Amino acid sequence: MKTIENIPDSQLLLFKSCMVGQEYPGVETSTRYVFDRLGIDYCINDEQSCCTGIGHYTDIFEGLTTTAIAARNFAVAKRCGYPNITCLCSTCYAINKEACEVLNTNTEIREKVNSIFREQGLENLVYEKDDMNPKTNFYHAVEILLSKVNEIQEQKKFDFSGVKAAAHHACHYYKVKYLDVLGSPENPQLIDTIAAACGAEPLRWYEDRTLTCGMGFSQLHLNKKTSLQVTKTKLDSLQKAGVELMIHMCPNCHIQYDRYQPVIEKEFCVKYDMVHMNIAQFVALSMGADPYKICGFQTHSVPLEGFLEKNGII
Amino acid sequence: MIPYINEYDTPECKNLAETAKKSIRTPASLGLDRCIQCGACTASCPAARFTDYSPRQIVKKVLENDRGILKSEMIWSCFYCYSCNVRCPRNNSPVTIVQVLRQMAINEGIGVERLGYFVEIGEYLAVNGASKVPSAGVKNMERDLGERWIKFKKNLESIRVELDLSSKDIRNIHGEVQAILEGTGYFEREKWIKERIQEKHLRHLLKNQCVNKEDTNGEFVFENDREHTGQPAFII
């Protein structure tokens, strides 16, 4: 089990996420904005590649490729002196953490990956056992925010009191490596605690709280109807509870709820009152960040203007 | 057709359970032999809620070494959400076992047509160091998400610059990712998959009317499985 005292605030490699970069770039900018104000020592290294998650979970990449790509990213992190990989996407987090475990415990695969590096003239990428520690080198950005929740509260410029919020914790953060979660994997409260520090009133439990977003990697594309039924189930539950803001920690869930909420409304003849944002965008906003130049709300599908106006931000 | 050999995802073993346990995709602590068929996996599964999918039944078939499971449509319904993984009281992990089954099916050319949609992800990653939504997916998103999203996508580069990011999310990978994908045999497999998809496409065109029942394991049939595509059991 992870403990809050052991979450680092230095030597963090802020691991770029492909889906953040292409769909919600403001999540990366917001995280940087908040990290800068919290005095966190981090770096972004554009030598870091995609974790392979999208290809891995659509069954395109085999495990060996995924592990070798992860080993390369570990070399990038170590080489620049920022070995604490801190992810914006829960799938990057799970893929990297699992690959590290495989590399440390499975000698055959480690040697195979290293022999590929040597054959390809990439000796600088060779991974030695325990170069990285799966328990202490891998974090999700939301864990860093939670460890600084008091500072977040102190630096708050806007108070969101009265905002009824609900958290959607990402499956690949708490259900893959469930022994390494901050809090209980049956009811994670990371986002709720941070949102409360910004003044919001998080709904600590709601029906289907632990249900997946429904994206399901290939499912959204190949079984769209089932995929959207899953998404709709949680939106229905939140609508019933009178939630106005749903807060995310993974770009895949964010796409599923924000991009597809209008699609579900149309296809299932329903109407929802929720808006969506990532927890880093919410914290940045409460610290006084610009909703467009930092948070990047112009990239969202469900317009946030009504919410921002109501709370006196625009 | 000669099956594809994927020795790390699907190591050749005496039965399905051993292959699942030795696979790179499943945790070393996999409690497959400890499964008591309690159904906690199915009870917490989003696919089971809306389709005929049943992780409990899949694990049972694996323990019975019933290779007919590879031909079941059911294995393609999993969301990879890992709810079964967190809920199993015996440390089993149906979600990772299903990943192994899908890889085994692919080795035999079963279900490869589903990969056609995503197969460009690898080449894009090799060149750019990032992944993207495949172009078929983009087309669907354009249709579903409409003007607002299309406009945002058109302006993505200027929005990224406004947000103090590089205009394009392209990584500085020095050709290393390409070299790794060559070294692991990724491209070889990709080529093999593309050929299988093409073959299937041709065969489909040829047989069009004369429906030739594929040989299936008669021992078990999941309800409605043969014609059922994994779509809704009921609509809410």
The CATH topology of the largest domain in chain A turns out to be: Rossmann fold
Per DSSP E runs of 2 or more residues, the count of β-strands of chain B stands at 0
Say what the CATH topology of the largest domain in chain B is: Fumarate Reductase Iron-sulfur Protein, Chain B, domain 2
Structural class call of chain A reads alpha/beta
Major sheet details of chain B: none
The Rg value of chain B, from CA coordinates, equals 20 Å
Which runs of chain A of at least 5 residues are low in confidence (pLDDT < 50)? none
Residues in β-strands, percent of chain A = 5-15%
**What share of residues of chain A is helical?**
40-55%
Number of DSSP strands of chain A? 8
Structure commentary:
The complex is a heterodimer of chains A (314) and B (236). Chain A is an alpha/beta fold. Chain A has two domains: 9-139, Glutathione S-transferase Yfyf (Class Pi), Chain A, domain 2 (Up-down Bundle), CATH 1.20.1050; 158-310, Rossmann fold (3-Layer(aba) Sandwich), CATH 3.40.50.11810. Chain A contains 15 helices and eight strands. In chain A, the strands form two sheets. A four-stranded parallel sheet of chain A has the order 2-1-3-4. Chain A has a four-stranded parallel sheet with strand order 6-5-7-8, with helices on both faces. In chain A, helix 4 (63-79) crosses helix 5 (90-105) and helix 4 packs across helix 6. The relative contact order of chain A is 0.14. The termini of chain B are far apart. In chain B, helix 4 packs across helix 6 (94-107) and helix 7 (120-128) packs across helix 10 (176-183). Chain B has 236 residues and is mostly helical. Chain B folds into two domains: 16-109, Alpha-helical ferredoxin (Fumarate Reductase Iron-sulfur Protein, Chain B, domain 2), CATH 1.10.1060.10; 116-207, no CATH class. At the A-B interface, helix 1, helix 2, helix 3, helix 4 and helix 5 of A face helix 3, helix 5, helix 6, helix 7 and helix 8 of B.
